[in-house]
From TrEMBL, chains A, B:
Record has Transport as a keyword: yes
Key words, A-Z: Cytoplasm, Phosphate transport, Transport
Pfam families, A to Z: PhoU
Assigned GO CC terms: cytoplasm
Record organism: Pelagovum pacificum
Domain of life: Bacteria
Keyword check for Lipid metabolism: no
Lineage: Bacteria, Pseudomonadati, Pseudomonadota, Alphaproteobacteria, Rhodobacterales
PhoU domain span: 23-111, 127-212
Name used for this protein in its record: Phosphate-specific transport system accessory protein PhoU
Length: 238, 238
């Protein structure tokens, strides 16, 4: 390898390291938003919810910065093969993380309106468990990306099934609560939204896991995973 | 310009043209899915709904193909500046289109369960109007991209406000229907989901419009657009 090439390679590595450090920071902020959003909801803590809402701006700003740096790196270093694939994965990850952050913000936004309504028994704790599960999946998928660990990514992908099951169970519960007492309807509509958004967060994290598998193995995982949201076909009588 | 450079330039142009042709095809398939999905729903046409569901596979396959071709073009031609930005926009567009297609598929999936329930007066036509509006926005944003027309993209962005207003009105209606008669609850939950998904399609198309503006002008549009979904704060008493 000529000195010149060596120079180019390490410049790419340095750029990649900087981009990945920002990506991990973004991931950390999104993880915190998920946990804080769910905590704010459970304790009807309007202040914490406001913090989550405002925090989303920092996440969006970071997304823009990472995208710019990544595009700059592609333009400047003209990477090919795996190096390029790594950078294109970064761009997909920021898009997914931004959306997960948006869902967390939305969960926080609904806290103030739900604070005015009577609680629906058991649902807040169930939502927090779901959110916690998704946050752990996100943490692991970021680790899997950094370690290029396809096994861990596959594990994340499988765990999304649990999140889907939690969601399906809650959908049924919400229908029941609403039918029992129409005064539950408005609160259940909001809570159901939150449940669905957490389920969607899980889907986004699962997409990220599939990207890691693709990055490591060069092929997308087979359709081994069952589609989890069964509620498209569900009625209260099920 | 040397002959060699000219050769490189036109090879890039040829690649870009091929990628964009596939992108337009993908956009056309997604537009058809939106319209057919809404039509299937309104007429409770389970066969047409099934066609939409199956059609989503072609959309996904096209997304993968476009992404591969785009990555190949970046690796091979090492474009910089605007050329690179155009290709990175293609990658964002395929991601958004794939999601819009997914929402259309989901609308179709709910047709069979809704076919078993009594209709909720007026909502199917309202959903079809919303879907039609989003399909027109998508058509225009694809035109705006090809023509590099920032004005048209800005117009699309503004029209998302109408879609949001339609959604807000429907949310209120669904709450009322559910409170009037608990037998409406299950159907309204499904219909509300569909309405929210159409509203989300509008958001994705709006993101695409912002990408076009960024591509043409080099800056993201100001926050001039109001956030349209007000239902995070909404109760039936509003």
């Amino acid at each position: 390898m000529s000195n010149n090439q060596q120079h180019i390679v390490s410049a790419y590595d340095r750029d990649l390291e900087a981009v990945q450090a920002m990506l991990m920071k973004m991931g950390g902020l999104v993880e915190a938003s998920i946990l804080d959003g769910a905590k704010a909801l459970e304790s009807r803590d309007v202040e914490l919810a406001e913090k989550v809402r405002l925090g989303d701006k920092a996440i969006d700003a970071l997304e823009e910065k990472i995208n710019e740096e990544t595009a700059r790196c592609i333009a400047l270093r003209a990477p090919v093969s795996t190096d390029l694939r790594v950078l294109l994965t970064v761009l997909r990850f920021t898009g997914s993380l931004e959306r997960v952050g948006d869902y967390a913000k939305n969960m926080a936004k609904r806290t103030s309106v739900l604070a005015e309504m009577r609680p629906i028994q058991g649902t807040d704790a169930a939502l927090r468990r779901m959110a916690r599960e998704v946050q752990l999946m996100l943490k692991d998928v970021l680790d899997a990306y950094i370690q290029r660990d396809a096994m861990l990514a596959e594990d994340v992908r499988q765990r999304d099934h649990d999140v889907d099951q939690m969601y399906n169970a809650m959908f049924r519960e919400f229908l029941t609560f609403m039918m029992e007492d129409p005064r539950n309807i408005t609160a259940c509509m909001h809570l159901h939204f939150i449940a669905k958004n957490i389920e969607r967060m899980g889907d986004l994290v699962t997409n990220m896991a599939e990207q890691v598998i693709y990055l490591v193995s060069g092929t997308m995982p087979e359709e081994g995973r069952q589609k989890g949201d069964e509620t498209s076909f569900m009625t209260a009588e099920d």
